Amino acid sequence: MTETRSGGPSLDVVDILTADHRDMLALLGQIESTTDPAQRRDLADTVIAEVMRHAVAEEMHVYPAVKEHVPNGAQEVEHDKEEHDEIVQLMKQLEDVDAGEPRFMDLVRQLEAQLRHHANDEETDQFPQLRAHIPVEKLVDLGEKVERAKKLAPTRPHPSAPHSELFHKTVGPGVGMIDRLRDKLTGRQTS
Ligand SMILES: [Fe+2]
Ligand SMILES: [Fe+2]
Asked: Where would you tag: which of 8, 57, 104, 159 has the fewest CB atoms within 10 A of its CB?
């Protein structure tokens, strides 16, 4: 948490993304603690949507800032995007498997391990670097951009979509709109 010039507390981009990480891991924990396949499906769809929104917002606004301001940033971002790609591939498999099958929990556990590893990397490495190299006002502004991006982002995994800022800015909102329409029509739990 940081202080704005007016003295009020204001969340910066790191606060927001770190809270997202906690939320997605908590949702995965809830899947473990229920045995009802319908509930497991809903929780999995919710976590998939949360992770998609978060990852797209990072690729649009946060990774470009890492690239620009952090020493070795370009290399770190390449690594992060590779991990996002692995996470999207896993979520695609999770989307397609029946929640009553043993493979479902297997994928949930793999996703949890990957997310925990990736979030830990960001929180111990890239996020402190962002705070060290970017002024507070800009970090708060990036947080607002992230929140806006999450509202328009896709809610379903698209394994062939590129992890690029340009793609997310041009094609992404259309994909997101179709995803949300499909979510509504199929009663899919995505928020
Ligand atoms: Fe990430
Ligand atoms: Fe993240």
From this structure: 8
